[in-house]
Amino acid sequence: MTGQLIISGLTIGSIYAMLALAMSIIYKASEIPNFAQGDMGMISTYIAYMILVVHGWPFWMAFAGAMIFAVILGFLFEFLFIRRAKEPNILNLIIVTLGFQLFLYGMTGWRWGSDQRRLGMPFSETDTINVGGVVISHLGVATILTSIIIMVMLWFFLSRTKLGLAMKAVQQNPMAAEINGIPKDRILGISFAISSVIGAMAGMMIAPITTLDPNMMWDPLMKGFAAAVLGGMTSLPGAIIGGYLLGIIENLFGFYVSLEFKSVVAFLIIVLVLVFKPAGILGHHYVRKV
Amino acid sequence: MDMKRDYYEDVQLLHGKTARFWFFLLLITLASLPFIIKGYYVYILSLMAVNVIVALGLNLLVGNTGQISLGHAGFVAIGAYTTAILMISFAVPFIPAMIAGGLIAAFFGFLLGLPALRLEGPYLAIATLAFGLAITTVIGRVGFFGGHMGLSVPAVRFESLGLTRDESVYYVAMITAVLLGIFARNFLKTRPGRAFQAVRDSDIAAAAMGVNVSYYKTLSFAVSAFYAGIAGGLWAILIGFINPGLFSFILSILYLATVVIGGLGTILGSVLGAVVVTFLSLQLENVQTIPGIGQLLEAFSKQFMTLSGLPNIVWVLTGLILILIVLFEPLGLYGIWSRIKTYWKTWPF
Fold first, then answer.
1. Which of the 8 DSSP states describes residue B149?
2. Which residue of B84, B137, B200, B300 pairs with B66 in a disulfide if CB–CB is 3.0 to 4.6 A?
3. Would you tell me the crossing angle of helices A37-49 and A2-30 to the nearest 10 degrees?
4. Inside any domain, residue A290
5. Can you give the CATH number for the domain in which A192 is found?
């Protein structure tokens, strides 16, 4: 039974890991927790829904359409709003992301109403594979595989390509990066675009499990933050580990302690981690200089 | 000209005869309004008063102490539920129940303030966000709190004074709002109030000057939560029915939006923000009925959007205003107001 719980924890955990990864990328680059992350993913999922269900085009086109939309949305958000902030302190930037979140939430509600819809994926959530007594649905396999593919691609991008190295340079020391001729603002825009794509993938994986409606991302968003905090906001491997750990802990808690209060676990984890090890599992503790 | 000669002149509530005159005129207007307008408009004014209270408290925390809270709906929920349960199960009269609600919210604010000591900016935002979500989850799952179905709150009516239900709630809410407003204004000029601003501007410098940063941070959370709790009790009797869905994450953001739109760190800003945001959100809920724009938006929705989703325009506009305020007018409505004031004071120069 525990094995089963861990496997289903891994499935949901890979979604949290994706969201945590998306947040960490932006947080590392700009120290902004992007509260619009969830709803950016949500609206991209709606685009996929439009292409797939309303127009009836094949799945790969819906997927590609949603990804292209997510890239444009992420880049535009940075270009139009984050870049223009007058006094870019953390509080103001958080408020900008919250404003954008409200804006997207309202636009989605206006365009598609608050009805709960179903996003049909080519992977079934009822057909299962049985591996040594542990049952996992096709969708679960697809979710775990997607998250792993994203991680490998991101690792390759950050450590093997010029653009990825430029992103790392900006994260480590923005001023030195600029002196070396790296366009800081454009790199930040690209960071937002990448994180938006990862968020959109997480959204598309959540939609078949829950339903597609404007409120669907609130809970996963909070879990994603919890995962990022658990792993250490400044560490990408930490975000992944945090995501999987949170999924597993949450599932075990739901089975052995209380199913009703399963969603409070994330809050407890945030508070406990912040009190006892604010840097998270893999993050570096951040000491502010005067 | 703002020339101050001694300390007591600096801390007094109202400067000069003009300010005193306008202040008492405002009080008289507020007291006599229920005799002039009736029904729904009294309800709107009460709702504004409730939101003014939340905004005052949140502004003390965000604007004056520089700590962010995305979980204020959680404190409002605690106040509302405490008041409702004390009134239903223990037959406590409304005013003590409301104050108890405020105190319990303040206690939770103190508890949330404890981890907040070690957190800054983004981490604090996440922790408070999680707190707000956790509170509504717990309330929704426990049968004692009425679960998802909610609770209906007993009506409050001061019959001996010859007031209707709406008017009773109006007077309680307005008097509380005015009292808490005056309290906030005075509080900012005391030692704790100035310590709050020192913590906001630089907590390291404040600590070096002998300000007990952890004490004032938790105090700020507790005071802010007290305001929210009181407002929660008032809101509960105003709408007569509460359920966990009311106190969502979106409501917390709306409260933060109120403070930012009004102007961070000013009392007048809290009041302006709460009045404007309440008015806007009530108007935009029935945007179709506004002449001119209504039909236009209706046609636009039919063509490109859905008609049933049109009330969501509240969020679209609030979100846009929030972003634009941060980008172009960081002091909010208060900034606009003070610019107009300076223009006329120094006219024609």
1. G
2. B200
3. 110
4. no
5. 1.10.3470
Q: Which residues of B touch A84 (CB under 8 A)?
A: 327
φ and ψ at residue A131, rounded to 5 degrees: -115, 105
pLDDT, averaged across chain B: 86
Q: What is the DSSP letter of B159?
A: G
**Residue in chain A nearest B203 by alpha carbon:** A290
Contacts of B257 in chain A (CB under 8 A): 98-99, 102
Task: Identify the band that residue B33 occupies on the pLDDT scale cut at 50, 70 and 90.
Answer: confident
At residue A235, the pLDDT reads 83
- Look at residue A284 and tell me if it is in a domain: no
Interface contact A3, partner B, CB < 8 A: no
- Would you call B315 and A222 a contact, using CB atoms and an 8 Å cutoff? no
Question: Between chains, do B137 and A263 touch, taking CB under 8 Å as contact?
Answer: yes
* Touching B: A residues 246-275, CB under 8 Å: 260-261, 263-264, 266-267, 270-271, 274-275
- What single DSSP character describes residue A122? S
Percent of chain B with pLDDT over 70: 98
Q: Residue A100 falls within a domain, yes or no? A: yes
* Residue B70, helix vs strand vs coil: coil
Q: Is the pLDDT assigned to residue B11 strictly greater than 80?
A: no
* Residue in chain A nearest B208 by alpha carbon: A290
Q: Tell me whether residues B133 and A222 touch, CB distance under 8 A.
A: yes
Residue by residue, pLDDT tens for chain A (290 residues) are 788 888 888 888 999 999 999 998 888 888 888 889 899 999 999 999 888 888 888 888 888 999 999 999 999 999 998 888 766 777 888 889 999 999 999 999 888 887 788 777 777 777 777 777 788 888 888 889 999 999 999 999 988 899 989 988 888 888 888 898 999 888 989 999 999 999 999 998 888 888 888 888 888 888 888 898 888 888 888 889 999 999 999 888 888 887 777 778 888 888 888 778 777 777 776 555 55
Cβ–Cβ below 8 Å for B326 and A274? no
**B327 near B333, Cβ under 8 Å?**
no
Q: Judge: A106–B312 Cβ closer than 8 Å, yes or no.
A: yes
Residues B116, B221 contacting (CB under 8 angstroms): yes
- Number of compact structural domains in chain A: 1
**Is A105 close to B319, i.e. CB distance below 8 A?**
yes
Are B169 and B234 a contacting pair, CB within 8 Å?
yes
How many domains does chain B divide into?
Answer: 1
Is B8 domain-assigned? no
pLDDT at B176: 93
B277: left (phi over 0), alpha (psi -120 to 50) or beta: alpha
Within-domain flag for B10:
no
CB-nearest to B130 from A94, A95, A266 is A266
Residue B331 within a domain: yes
Q: Regarding beta strands A128-131 and A134-137, do their DSSP bridges make them parallel or antiparallel, or are they unpaired?
A: antiparallel
Contact B325, B335 (CB under 8 A): no
Residue of B nearest to A30 (CA): B122
Q: Is residue A57 part of a domain?
A: yes
A69 — contact with chain B (CB < 8 Å)? no
Flag whether pLDDT at B72 surpasses 80.
yes
Is B4 within a domain? no
Range of the domain at A209: 2-276
Q: Contact, A55 vs A271, CB < 8 A?
A: no
Q: Which of A40, A90, A91, A250 to mutate to test the interface with B (most CBs of B within 10 A)?
A: A91
Residue B206's domain comprises 38-345
